[in-house]
């Protein structure tokens, strides 16, 4: 009976694996085919088989068409810096709310959670206006003060460091830590920052993993904000690059598949490397991703 | 901070601040003119744009044009965002039907090109609003009904001309015969897998041929009667029938669009000039390019393509106009047409084209463009008209009730017109 249920379980898991893997297999296999064959094969199972005229021409086409490594570097830089700063800022806020005693912290938490109601599209234009007016330093044409931070890494990072979901996750996690830990540390003369740094954060592995992934993915997939604020190709992220393959009534499907294959790799690596934290955190916090 | 150290830092900053600009002035750097174009990822067209810029920059020392290319799919959003933050560049390109909306929104200023330069250009590539020229295109596009002489002969169909195009009955008969012959998967390739501007550009001429339109052009204040009147409903029923009767695939695939006609799976293709070279390569002299049918009032195709304009906030308007005057020289117009498979926009450029001009393979398309064009409605409301028309045409294609769908489209358009005070010019 036990063997039978195990066989059933593994059969179901295998089927589910195929269901989830099919799009990825289709993408990678299609990236090796010329456009005409790729489109023709979509009507049959050949779409999942590397048959016919197979080559890496689409990949070379991607590198010829766009500055792929510039876009990749920009996205990695922006995503990673946002993740690192976001982890520090959001966990600090959450620690203050969850562990420290001060008046109005529940109100502050309610305000933070209330911001989740607003989709990004609602604040995009006001944010754009602020970013156009914010003072900045320029070295073009001599050192001088100017305004606006368009066409920079800062504009892609700063608005996305503080994040309500991340704060919420950290608050939920910090609330599960025994209060005795703080009290013992306080008795020994530890400052709140030392408690945060030496006690709370080392125990927050699952929350850190989840927040890192939940911050990284939207930054990696960032599209609307860079469209609005980045006019200089040197600062464009990887998702804008995808649009380069759709020109006037012509679409290069093979190159799109090659491009998607290339930019899926870092995400898969990140997820696999942090999968343990992610699953643990979902199990403990009940967050559904 | 140590007061001495603070003082030295202040001196350093002040010195850098003073010396660096002074060095720049000493060299009398040319005024920078930023240009945005939708050609990111479109290597051939971007190369031609870059060539005009490179040559212009080398030809004088007063101005330096700097090109920033955007992928087409995100270009309009980028321009709208830049306008919202007062960050527009000097030179922009725009799809022709969007020019009135950009003028209304205050993005653009009239061009100051000499009339002698712009006079030879075909009207379809000139964005004239309230008598002022706001934009000009370096190439044009046209649509035609592609088939082969062999197919026409085998199906026993007469060859239509501009003077004597197929009537609605003849067109329907041709499609039915193609389908009934059993030689083709479908009679007509329409490219309905495409989205956005494709729909009004390719399919609203059918509506106009029936006698309808996207909006009543007398005042541009309502779509009532134009988009839901008798003629429009007749168009809707005919349009729906193309798919319901299996003459054209309801949900065309990219493969059918790209390869359907050249692989002989479709008898006819309603397609653009840019696909002409591909068809010519396959069928050679057997290729036949037919005019649009007269579905009720007159045969119609759309016109206009991407055009150059200069923004209202441009601080070097004279320089921007100087570049544009430079870029519309015949030698560049020839390149824009020949390198991209587009239609030349002046007689001189046409004479140098291997495809267009009298006796050349795609001469019929040029004739259609000269004689059968109805431009998409030149109103600031056009982006809304285009979107509403696409939604309505899709719904009808998919089997929606024609009258209800068109009435709904009219209500949407009229509501938008009213809420924008009928796009009266801002004082």
Mind explaining what this structure looks like?
The complex is a heterodimer of chains A (289) and B (427). Chain A has 289 residues and is mainly α. Chain A has 2 domains: 55 residues, no CATH class; 220 residues, Orthogonal Bundle (MetI-like fold). Helices cover 69% and strands 4% of the residues of chain A. A two-stranded antiparallel ribbon of chain A has the order 1-2. Chain A has a two-stranded antiparallel sheet with strand order 3-4. In chain A, α1 packs antiparallel against α14 and α4 runs antiparallel to α11. Chain A is flat. The two termini of chain A are 35 Å apart. Chain B has 427 residues and is of the alpha/beta class. Chain B folds into 2 domains: 169 residues, D-Maltodextrin-Binding Protein, domain 2; 202 residues, D-Maltodextrin-Binding Protein, domain 2 (3-Layer(aba) Sandwich). In chain B, the strands form 2 sheets. In chain B, strands 1, 2, 3, 4, 5, 6 and 11 form a 7-stranded mixed β-sheet that branches. The radius of gyration of chain B is 25 Å and the shape is globular. Chain B starts with a helix and ends in an 8-residue tail after the last helix. About 4% of the residues of chain B have low confidence. At the A-B interface, α2, α6, α12, β3 and β4 of A face α1, β1, β2, α3 and α10 of B.
């Amino acid at each position: 009976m036990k063997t039978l249920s195990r066989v059933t379980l593994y059969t179901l898991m295998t089927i589910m694996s195929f269901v989830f893997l099919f799009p990825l297999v289709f993408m990678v296999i299609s990236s090796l085919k010329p456009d005409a064959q790729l489109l023709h094969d979509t009507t049959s199972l050949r779409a999942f088989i590397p048959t016919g005229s197979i080559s890496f021409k689409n990949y070379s086409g991607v590198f010829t068409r766009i500055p792929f490594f510039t876009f990749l570097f920009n996205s990695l830089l922006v995503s990673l810096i946002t993740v690192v700063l976001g982890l520090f800022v959001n966990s600090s806020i959450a620690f203050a709310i969850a562990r420290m005693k001060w008046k109005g912290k529940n109100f502050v938490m309610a305000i933070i959670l209330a911001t989740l109601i607003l989709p990004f599209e609602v604040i995009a234009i006001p944010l754009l206006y602020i970013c156009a007016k914010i003072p900045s330093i320029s070295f073009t044409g001599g050192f001088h003060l100017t305004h606006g931070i368009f066409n920079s890494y800062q504009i892609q990072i700063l608005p996305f460091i503080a994040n309500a979901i991340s704060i919420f996750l950290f608050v939920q996690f910090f609330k599960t830590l025994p209060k005795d830990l703080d009290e013992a540390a306080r008795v020994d003369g530890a400052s709140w920052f030392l408690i945060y740094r030496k006690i709370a954060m080392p125990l927050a592995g699952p929350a850190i993993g989840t927040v890192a992934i939940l911050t990284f993915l939207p930054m990696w997939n960032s599209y609307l904000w860079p469209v609005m604020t980045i006019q200089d190709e040197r600062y464009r992220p990887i998702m804008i690059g995808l649009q380069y393959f759709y020109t006037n009534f012509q679409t290069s499907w093979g190159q799109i598949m090659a491009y998607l294959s290339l930019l899926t790799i870092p995400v898969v690596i990140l997820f696999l490397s942090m999968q343990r934290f992610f699953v643990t955190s979902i199990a403990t916090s009940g967050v559904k991703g | 901070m140590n007061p001495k150290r603070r003082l030295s830092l202040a001196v350093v900053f002040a010195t850098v601040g003073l010396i660096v600009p002074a060095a720049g002035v000493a060299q009398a750097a040319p005024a920078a003119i930023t240009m945005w174009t939708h050609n990111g990822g479109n290597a051939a067209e971007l190369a031609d744009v870059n060539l005009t810029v490179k040559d212009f920059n080398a030809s004088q020392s007063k101005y330096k044009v700097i090109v920033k290319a955007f992928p087409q799919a995100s270009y309009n959003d980028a321009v709208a965002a830049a306008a919202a933050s007062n960050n527009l560049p000097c030179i922009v390109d725009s799809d022709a039907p969007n020019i009135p909306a950009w003028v209304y929104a205050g993005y653009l200023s009239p061009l100051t090109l000499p009339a002698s330069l712009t006079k030879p250009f075909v009207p379809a590539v000139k964005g004239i609003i309230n008598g002022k020229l706001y934009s000009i295109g370096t190439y044009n596009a046209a649509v035609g009904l592609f088939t082969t002489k062999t197919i026409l002969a085998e199906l026993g169909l007469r060859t239509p001309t501009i003077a004597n195009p197929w009537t609605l009955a003849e067109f329907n008969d041709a499609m039915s015969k193609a389908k009934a012959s059993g030689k083709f998967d479908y009679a007509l390739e329409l490219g309905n897998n495409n989205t956005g501007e494709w729909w009004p550009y390719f399919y609203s001429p059918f509506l106009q041929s029936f006698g309808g339109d996207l909006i009543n052009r007398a005042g541009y204040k309502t779509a009532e009667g134009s988009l839901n009147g008798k003629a429009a409903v007749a168009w809707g029923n005919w349009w729906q029938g193309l798919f319901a009767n299996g003459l054209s695939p309801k949900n065309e695939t990219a493969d059918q669009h790209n390869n359907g006609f050249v692989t002989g799976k479709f008898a006819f293709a309603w397609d653009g000039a840019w696909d002409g070279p591909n068809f010519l390569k396959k069928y050679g002299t057997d290729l036949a390019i037919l005019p649009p049918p007269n579905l009720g009032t007159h045969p119609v195709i759309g016109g206009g393509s991407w055009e150059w304009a200069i923004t209202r906030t441009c601080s070097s308007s004279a320089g921007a106009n100087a570049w544009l005057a430079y870029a519309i020289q015949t030698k560049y117009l020839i390149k824009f047409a020949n390198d991209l498979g587009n239609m030349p926009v002046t007689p001189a450029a046409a004479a140098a084209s291997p495809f267009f001009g009298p006796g050349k393979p795609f001469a019929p398309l040029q004739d259609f463009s000269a004689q059968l064009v109805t431009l998409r409605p030149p109103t600031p409301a056009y982006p809304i008209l285009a979107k509403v028309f696409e939604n309505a045409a899709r719904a009808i294609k998919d089997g929606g009730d024609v009258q209800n769908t068109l009435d709904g489209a009219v209500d949407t358009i009229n509501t938008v017109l009213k809420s924008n005070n009928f796009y009266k010019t801002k004082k």
